[in-house]
Write a structure and sequence with these properties.
Radius of gyration: 20 Å
Structural class: alpha+beta
Number of helices: 4
Largest sheet: 3 strands, mixed
Shape: globular
Oligomer: single chain
Helix content: 25-40%
Length: 202
């Protein structure tokens, strides 16, 4: 919409800001040209307010219009939808970190459930994918190339077997189809995860 020589730089700033987790990465300063003059805004990861956003216009039942299929919404959850019990050191930093993590997980699951319900009411369908609780050795904010490559390969293998997406209105099957990690360890795909099965929106 802006165009001009600064458009590419602005686009990159927005992408970097969307990954700027507060407390771990500095905010991205974006210059704004307003009617009352120029000013600066500090932008951070949008998860601070909502884990993901699906515009309501995309959920309208366009399937009622001849020649159009009902809308399909796909949500990729960059994390897990549940947390296994774990030991936490009684220190301020670890307690706060665990509390924030639990809060964000709950907010993501709640937003997913609300979005799925809205989609169903509008005649749309929603499918989602999240990292199963059984996926091994995944530490928060581990962005090393080796970790990301292994996770992407795992997702590719699950997609190849048709077990990457969970239909919000459908029950998860009891027939396990498994992906294989790069280390050769057999682990379940997102559609096989017991935790997701328990909390999937019907």
């Amino acid at each position: 919409m802006n165009g001009g020589p600064n458009a590419k730089a602005l686009f990159r700033d927005v992408l970097v800001a969307s990954a700027s987790v507060p407390g771990m990465f500095p905010p991205v300063i974006i210059r704004i040209q307003g009617e009352q003059g120029d000013y600066s805004e500090a932008h951070v990861d949008g998860t601070t307010t909502v884990p993901f956003l699906v515009p309501s216009a995309l959920l309208h039942a366009t399937g009622e219009v001849a020649g159009h299929s009902p809308p399909e919404v796909y949500v990729i959850v960059d994390g897990r939808l549940g947390q296994e019990p774990t030991s936490v050191q009684l220190r301020f930093r670890t307690i706060v970190s665990r509390s924030i993590s639990a809060g964000l997980t709950h907010m993501t699951r709640t937003t997913l459930e609300l979005t799925a319900t809205t989609a169903q009411l509008q005649g749309a369908s929603l499918r989602y994918s999240a990292i199963p609780t059984a996926y091994p050795d995944l530490a928060p904010f581990d962005f090393r190339t080796s970790t990301m490559r292994s996770l992407y390969q795992y997702g590719y293998e699950c997609a190849h077997t048709g077990r990457l997406w969970v239909a919000s209105q459908a029950a998860v099957t009891d027939h396990p189809h498994h992906g294989e990690s790069t280390s050769g360890q057999r682990i379940g795909c997102p559609a096989d995860d017991d935790y997701i099965a328990r909390f999937a929106v019907r």
